[in-house]
Design a protein that fits this description.
The complex is a heterodimer of chains A (390) and B (179). With 390 residues, chain A is mainly beta. Chain A folds into 2 domains: 55-72 and 263-390, Methylamine Dehydrogenase, Chain H (7 Propeller), CATH 2.130.10.10; 81-262, YVTN repeat-like/Quinoprotein amine dehydrogenase (Methylamine Dehydrogenase, Chain H), CATH 2.130.10. Chain A is built from 1 helix and 28 strands. The longest helix of chain A has 32 residues, at 2-33. Chain A is globular, with a radius of gyration of 22 Å. The termini of chain A are far apart. Chain B has 179 residues and is mainly beta. Chain B has a single domain, classed as Porin, CATH 2.40.160.20. Helices cover 7% and strands 69% of the residues of chain B. Chain B is built from 1 helix and 9 strands. In chain B, strand 3 and strand 4 (62-74) form a beta hairpin. Classes of the chains: A mainly beta (390), B mainly beta (179). Chains A and B meet through helix 1 of A and helix 1, strand 5, strand 6, strand 7 and strand 8 of B.
Amino acid sequence: MKARAVGSLFLGLALAFNAHQRIESAERSASETGLVAGAQQRPDAVIPGVPTIVSSPLKLAKAIRIPGLTLGAVDIFWVEESTQRLYFADRTNGSVDIIDTSNDTFVTRVPGFGPPTGFGNGPNGVQWVPGNKLWVGDGPSRVRVIDLNLSPPSIIQTIDTGGALRADELAYDPADHILMVGNNYDTPPFLTFISTDTYAILGKLVMSDATGLEQPVWDPQLNRMLLNVPNYTDLRGAGVAVINPVTRTIDKTYQMPNKCEGTGLALGPFQRLLVACGRPIIINAVNGNVINTITQVRSGDEVWYNSGDGQFYVASTDTNGSPVLGVIDAETATWRQNVPVGRAIRNVSAFAGNNHIYVASVAPPAGTPDTSACASFGFVGVGCIAVFTH
Amino acid sequence: MRFTLAALFFVGVFVSPLAAQAQGTSRYDIAGGYSYLHDQDISENLSKGWVVSVGGRVMKWLDAVGEVGGNHKTLSIPGDPPKIRVLALMGGPRLTGPGYRRLTPFGQVLFGAAWARTSVLDVGDSVRDFAYQPGAGVNWNLGPRVGIRLEGDYRIIRAEGSNSKEPRFVAAAVFGLGR
């Protein structure tokens, strides 16, 4: 009995020692491979959902030149942490472009999207889905699926959502393998729910009282899609619809104040939901209560939450109408900083692995001076992806 | 290396013939009290906490220990306040050192699981991970079967390829049972 007890004790100590060794080894390995990017990036927390706030100011760091036609029109940006890639809708080149976020370089382009203008235009929304597929809202009324495993990545599926105009923004429900996409310009606008396993259309939800559809986001804790509805036919202003993607029904709608017009949507920590509605409005996604309305910056189109630094980002203008990248502390729901960008920017995303923030800076009209972030890096009159860091 | 030295120190101090001279008279002990935990990962103090532990004598200087403890905190930020909870269920060996007057030192290494949950209005996210917890303390024996325990621990939770560290302080009442 005594021998067994002593043996157990030393076995315990040995296990603890071994575990400690493995931890040190894992930390060394991550450091050597560069996957732990910078001291500000903490390892995954054991307590879920608590953000690490990076309070140092954000500044313009570099610009990424996009090959092909001068960058004139873009839409949704999506950074996928697992692949370390930024995917964005490049309407100018009729493509989805791919950026390596670990070194901020252009990787490749997947062509075959469009047309670039009109109500049936594309590409629009982009959404990465496990299996390394990228789902893209395209015109007219088509959803394309890119297989990113192929070399080069190529479109492998085209799904007609049955509308007349463009298929726009989309979101993915990983619990049920359902992708939701909005036909925002059709009358009435409608949502289509597609199985990401079989590519079959599971059903639709017609939003008969909505004037359009904007950014959706999946809420994994509520198990619901949240959708920014920009306005309703009675002009009561934007609402956030809480949608069950399995039953394809609306559970409830959070009405936004002051009849504002909605655009983007981003889910942060503690169910804090940034609703772009003229101003950034931060609400509780559980009950719709407004936590704070940000007054120092307008809200722009797409908005993003970066879990790497605990900040919401908006690409918009300040109170004087000057183009800025707005930074909002997601935990306290307070404005933190406006970073001047010289010329209008649109769409924003971030890579939490190194806290690089990406915005599209499109080229100015021919003959006008280029005051954009791109020009300060020598890319005059061509547009670029501007990269900001702390 | 630091861990090796700590382990050698632990064994040297507690696994010695002297340890046998100062064992308690009770076959079992049960302790319950307050715990204060700091999570280094999120830089938060979880000052509301509790702990219950049960020990059974295996040898004169060796107990087998089971412990359950929880800590929680409500964050003071605008809007509906988020709640953080940590719960740990652990067990392992405890070595009791030679007593000095009414003080009996001990050291232990516990292994088990830690649960962490963050929620707002009861909507939240939780995880469970492997944890181990070296610690040491002293029992202040007020009588043959009752005492006060002061204890410090260093819980390490292995989560998603990294480790989170949670130093903890415990103050508890200890009761002896059996002979």
